[in-house]
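Case study 2.
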Amino acid sequence: MKALVYHGPGQSSWDQVPDPGIKDAADAVVRVDAVTICGTDLHILKGDVPDVATGTVLGHEAVGEVVEVGGDVRTVRPGDRVLVSCICACGRCRFCKEARYGQCLGGGGWVLGHLIDGAQAEYVRVPFADLSVHPLPHSVASNDAVMLADIFPTAYEVGVLNGAVRPGDTVAVIGAGPIGLAAIITARLLSPARIIAVDLAEPRLQAARQLGADAIVKASEGPEDLISDLTDGFGADVAIEAVGVPESFELCTRVVRPGGHIANIGVHGKPATLHLEDLWIKDVTITTGLVDTCTTPVLLRMASAGRLDLSSLVTHTFPLEHMEEAYDVFSTPADSGALKVVLNGPAAP
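Prediction:
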């Protein structure tokens, strides 16, 4: 099959590689119909995720058709259309029993495109299929459903729920890329009083406005002042970091109110300064996290009922074999206007 293979920092190519097969009785092999590129994939290519070995097939978000299952798989069978979760779960270890699937100790967690071959390929082997793939209703299109593999559960769990967003809150979302936009969409489910989006790029701020942000501000134009003005000097109840650079995290610490929450979503490749000389007295809660995807079934039901806007984030589509072009477009959003790109295999509807 063909797949996008990582060859070290700054290097990847669309290569011929062996087809995946069943290695464990809990595995499923899925033919990929729709796959997307994540900001984490760009972090891998920058060298920010050193655990990824040279020769690994990248990608951890896909929709497709099951073509083969191991003998222990009970919830899906060949021919089923499924969502491939970015997180695999053994279901037996301490963390899985707490629904902290991202911390799985039994061989799961974030493994696809990280520790084992991933989904930016014609086929992908998914470990622990009973908990790691989700049957899809026909009412959810493949290009929409793939948004539920990572970006929406990540934004909802690591940003909105970890940040303890409540009705009436002021929520500042620092970074209006795809994950920040998904945080805006899912924060609205909790009825905050206002959502303020901060970004460097005007097109992304306009996208944030269209998707539900009540106020937008460029990072270079004094977001601290705007947030202070809109909150009578208190600051944001919740500050969501959705970039993964020191400047955005440190901005969150400056705009959050005493007693507020900072929810870090971004993948950080460099250290950020934690100004405890200012924060120690402010009763601020800081959370970090890898998504567990425990909310995927809920989000999938909402999408099936038409209650969750998924398609607005997809700005570009490509045939699967145009993977390298898709990476070029996704990695240059200032020029391309890309939010999320989706690549479709030949069997996609």
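The longest strand covers residues 28-36.
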